[in-house]
Amino acid sequence: MDWKPNRHAVISIHRQITDRIKALIERGDWSTDMRIPPQRKLAEEFGVNRSTIQTALDELKADGYLEGRVGSGIYVTGNAWNLLMDQARPNWQRHIETGVHKPNYHTIQLINDYEQKDDIIRLGTGELSPDLLPARELEESLRSITLDARAIGYSSPQGSIKLREALSARLEKRGITVSSDNILIVSGALQALQLIAVGLLEEGATVFQEGPSYLNSVHPFQSAGMRMQAVNRAETLSSTIRSLKGQSLFYCVPTLNNPTGYSWTVEEKKSFYTLCRDARIPIIEDDVYQELQFGEGSPPLKAMDEAGHVLYLGSVSKTLSPGLRIGWIVAPTPVIKRLADIKMQTDYGSSAFSQEIVAHWMMSGRYDRHVERLRTRLQERAERMEKILLRQYQDIATWNRPSGGFYIWIRFHAPIVNKALFLKALQRKVLLNPGYIYDPGDAHHIRLSFAYASLDEMEIGLHQLRKIIEERRDAP
Amino acid sequence: MDWKPNRHAVISIHRQITDRIKALIERGDWSTDMRIPPQRKLAEEFGVNRSTIQTALDELKADGYLEGRVGSGIYVTGNAWNLLMDQARPNWQRHIETGVHKPNYHTIQLINDYEQKDDIIRLGTGELSPDLLPARELEESLRSITLDARAIGYSSPQGSIKLREALSARLEKRGITVSSDNILIVSGALQALQLIAVGLLEEGATVFQEGPSYLNSVHPFQSAGMRMQAVNRAETLSSTIRSLKGQSLFYCVPTLNNPTGYSWTVEEKKSFYTLCRDARIPIIEDDVYQELQFGEGSPPLKAMDEAGHVLYLGSVSKTLSPGLRIGWIVAPTPVIKRLADIKMQTDYGSSAFSQEIVAHWMMSGRYDRHVERLRTRLQERAERMEKILLRQYQDIATWNRPSGGFYIWIRFHAPIVNKALFLKALQRKVLLNPGYIYDPGDAHHIRLSFAYASLDEMEIGLHQLRKIIEERRDAP
Ligand SMILES: Cc1ncc(COP(=O)(O)O)c(C=O)c1O
Ligand SMILES: Cc1ncc(COP(=O)(O)O)c(C=O)c1O
């Protein structure tokens, strides 16, 4: 062993040592049941003092890499969990690699990691910025909430009746007439997709979606063994249908799509609905951005659904707080019953406290007032971003003026959006959502979000990006 | 059609009509795309007025059984969801029927249904009664909670660091030394089992458990394709292990087991731990009742675990409120990382509000004070129940004196605990958890819970049960 920790590295000495020892074990250099060298010896070899070694070894014990045996030193464990995990290709990944959609996992991983850091300008993040989240008002609203003992026990399968009734009244305003029996409360729209994949579809069923579409919608279906197929709604759907065998359904975000921000027109919605209904292809309408349309807006597909053909999803994540983890599914009662059953078997229902809070906000009018304000502020942010784009990007890119939501799907004339660009921007502390994570073949688009970065950050971040693009063009 | 609704039935007329029409459709008497008889005609046939028919048809439309076509009446839909559901043996049920453990689904269904009703005496319910739940204090505590915007956004994968640190300090007191990195916050212990089944095990792996054991632990594993095997810990485990092929793990509730209420002794825990460790069979220790031991209590297996061999589960469902949906997994960091990953893909983390509340209760000392009081009150209830048993059941049954938790696992000398007894009790408005739902061959046990029914209800319920047993003995 001639390895020594690097005293000038960003990673702490102690962390370098644990990493080193893990590597020795994982590569098999230190094998199961081997007695490791005494601490004194390790301290000498690594050129550190014994207390550092001690801390590192304690941590490795807690993590199951090493174990102490009374009176005889420290041994490498053949830790059963590590063995399990080595063997098990976990079944939630079983189908992923065979899917048509192969997102660039490394970029997505980097995005997830860097979203945890503080000094990064996040130009693509699909969340409300901290200053758009009503933390103060939420805190205050907690003071007005009354709990009775029934409400804090195990929940009824479909979720709080108070919340479902409040939702039924809200949905009515959007043209959707359903009773509380047609509603299931879930822990966010993402869980809804999970429940549908597991409870309503057979392995091998086909799930259509528009390309590009919401990234996290792919995983629940693929991991339950569904085949994802990207289609171009009107144009190709009808021909695709004809060649179709077996079960299928269509997942779509017709209003303010993620990542494009586009909404279908009322006519497009109508003809799509008719096409699917006639072909007996059920529709999942993911409508989490519905209330964030800047103008009048267009109604959901579900509002034109007389035949119980559309399964409708909503959530408060984009309007009130993602931390609440509250969403809903609207569907015919037999579907709701089955999904409620699976939900109970999965987690026994969503947080009763989150449900109380959302019900309180909806019933007291707080929610409406907040969403109203939020829309105005998002619109201001959208305008600000557009202004910057008009000033700095008009010569190299095009985009649609946003009609709501969070996103501008900017298209560069040249195919410059690749991993090198992404990494270069990251070096300058600007985090992007490049188009190729939605469609591996796309080198033209970036998803910009005007919901997360502060106005100053937008200015700085977009300026940096423009500079980077220039530099790369000038480089040989 | 000569069917007419029954005006004297408990079910409403309008409900009888919707049920009737659903049945006609489901049996195929009314087939897909058939135009149904005009409302006037239906009203005549069923002998009700048109508005009743109208309401029923509207509901059937909303549920996707019927659809209106403009200008031409109402038709039977070949509702795509119904078709899907008919075809799809949902994959969460795929493996259930092949499992060794075949609970009596009908009885379990009845228990779930009757637990929703108000005028039933629930002698077996595994929940805190409304008057043991600290609704008032929870409500009050909401006033002291402060939220910052970070805390109400999308959560970090492992859950609130504040809560994880509070838990790490609590666990230390129980002899479990782990850092916040070894903890994953989940939506209740049930979700923990779900994540483990999906993320750590291959299809076909063997999950051992003691018989009888927690009912809902079976489903997550079976639906992910694991084989469940009931073993008698010490006696048969070692011989079973020898014949074992492929992956396996042991799921157990060593402290205050559900349904028996038994705890293993410290010696039993030690020898079990050693056996499993040496055989490299990882252990899941479900310890949701740990803090409800009446006396000193015995420490968790996890406290003797130097090798990261035990995956440890806890929850506030049995102490504070099941509606919070907060539990935790303690494990080596590589395991935590993988499970956190799956958790994020499943529902993006647990309610941030629930996490704040639990962290607040633990850090402020509220939690300790409450659990202390709760233990006393559960002990009083246990003594009260035992007193009734001593008075009325000593001649026909035996039981162990409870050492904590919720349950008394009463054993009748004669094999009298069957479905007939269960139904008879239900008729008298007494709901039981008979032993045969835990083990189909068991005709001797009932799980009594002293946590749910009020003291008066206990008295009345147990008196009724005794009477029923007598009557049945006297009957020919
Ligand atoms: C289209 C779409 N659906 C669903 C979600 C997730 O919503 P939730 O937080 O309710 O799970 C998002 C969030 O990015 C989204 O963009
Ligand atoms: C042994 C055991 N584990 C887990 C649970 C479920 O706990 P949670 O509400 O945290 O999902 C129960 C509840 O009955 C139980 O008895």
UniProtKB/TrEMBL annotation, chains A, B:
Which cofactors does the annotated protein need, by name?
pyridoxal 5'-phosphate
Q: Check the record and name the PROSITE patterns matching this protein.
A: HTH_GNTR (PS50949)
- What are the alphabetically sorted keywords of the record? Aminotransferase, DNA-binding, Pyridoxal phosphate, Transcription, Transcription regulation, Transferase
Q: Where is the HTH gntR-type domain?
A: 11-79
What Gene Ontology terms describe what this protein does at the molecular function level?
A: DNA binding; DNA-binding transcription factor activity; pyridoxal phosphate binding; transaminase activity
The entry assigns this protein to a family as follows: In the C-terminal section; belongs to the class-I pyridoxal-phosphate-dependent aminotransferase family.
Which PANTHER family did the record assign? HTH-TYPE TRANSCRIPTIONAL REGULATORY PROTEIN GABR (PTHR46577), TRANSCRIPTIONAL REGULATORY PROTEIN (PTHR46577:SF2)
The name this protein goes by in its record: GntR family transcriptional regulator
Tell me the organism's taxonomic lineage: Bacteria, Bacillati, Bacillota, Bacilli, Bacillales
